[in-house]
């Protein structure tokens, strides 16, 4: 589904002493099938933005268009339930939202609420478990008996069970160890391609944004600060520094390499193996 | 007084009798003035170690000594005088309505004289560079600032040992950097023992020693520089080395580095020598 933000502003507690402008005239387009990373500091407006993607919040001015759905101030959105079925949101620490007696019931809760029949849900479950790499034998266990990483997979399975077209991920790897982080991100990346999803990843990790996204939007104090391809955005060290963001460590290294050794290597998402080979070659292969 | 601040002697622990062992025969000691990082994947037992160190849990087998005191239900209050702890979630550890009140809380609990209290609050907030926020409300601070205030609250008690139990896990990169700077400052300016618990190898470069946990057992005790060479083995236990170490390990097949580089700067320094000798 195509997503479009047109001059979207959101102000909390309008006309009160606590009035707070979280989003300010935000304008951007996301094409169906894109993998977009939204990057910004705590307080830059990322969470407010996310809540506009499935109608938990509406703009106080401007409009958000998601496929056939439109969110606009003072206008009732037609069939907002349909929108929430299409846009799956994995919130931060989603395992905190588990509540059912068994893993199976927890996964089924979402689609059931949207009116899916038991047969449909039962048919979906094995495929979803495979996607999130959970054993079918766990289905009748309590989700609270699982490790943190497994609980997160169950929570994600509950979102996938609705078969959304758009997947919104809010810091999906927070708190996981390196292996857990990579497994979860690789899983989302695979799903993105296999199911032709539109994926929106909210992250603090410049490295993940660079690795997975084909488009990056940087937010600063509720405004769009930069937008473009990750390999174009993340080389703009000075501009990123202005808003106290770092360039990803690979790119930082290549910049310093150029400064110290006068060796220019362009970043083209090459692997660390390839990078090492290039450096070896340029340095004449050492001894 | 012994120079071993913490001793784990054949410690085993499980949460219930029908549950698997979380820690199995764990042995290690931490010396005076050391900063030790405890590293491990989710569920490796590293946080259980922290909870055993200040008597939030007690071992099923073996003994733990903190500053010469054996940790038991009877000595737990003496132990907690020696051990301060900073937890993962910055929002779960505030009691005061201002930064000053919050740092004062532990001191008030111990009935410390008001004049000393004022001095200690001032000193500990200075150590974490939060003096300008004395009358701010803690919940309005950023994540990094909140954790710095939590550290100040612990410092004010003047413990021998501070445990940071994944204190950066819920922070953004800026907050993480703030905490690592604070920890490095403390390391330089005070004599307090530090134990930092993490799964992020970027955070251990300043530590004197690393204890790596895997499935409830001590997998390796080493120094950061040595650990960074163990890329393949670390990956097998769910951990990963930083980009700099990965690149260095691949370059090492052709270039003989005088030592394993810990930071990008160290790696560039080494490469520069090869470059200039060409």
From TrEMBL, chain A:
It comes from Halolactibacillus alkaliphilus. It comes from the Bacteria. ATP-binding (A) component of a common energy-coupling factor (ECF) ABC-transporter complex. Residues 3-246 form the ABC transporter domain. The keyword ATP-binding applies. The keyword Cell membrane applies. One of its GO terms (cellular component) is ATP-binding cassette (ABC) transporter complex. CDD domains: ABC_cobalt_CbiO_domain1 (cd03225). Belongs to the ABC transporter superfamily. Energy-coupling factor EcfA family. It is found in: Cell membrane. This is Energy-coupling factor transporter ATP-binding protein EcfA2. It is an enzyme of class 7 (translocase).
UniProtKB/TrEMBL annotation, chain B:
Coiled coil: none annotated. GO terms for cellular component: ATP-binding cassette (ABC) transporter complex. Its main location: membrane. GO terms for molecular function: ATP binding; ATP hydrolysis activity; ATPase-coupled transmembrane transporter activity; cobalt ion transmembrane transporter activity. Keywords: ATP-binding, Cell membrane, Membrane, Nucleotide-binding, Translocase, Transport. It is found in: Cell membrane. InterPro entries: AAA+_ATPase, ABC_transporter-like_ATP-bd, ABC_transporter-like_CS, ABC_transpr_CbiO/EcfA_su, ECF_ABC_transporter_ATP-bd, EcfA_1, P-loop_NTPase. Residues 6-240 form the ABC transporter domain. It comes from the Bacteria. It is a peripheral membrane protein. Belongs to the ABC transporter superfamily. This is Energy-coupling factor transporter ATP-binding protein EcfA1.
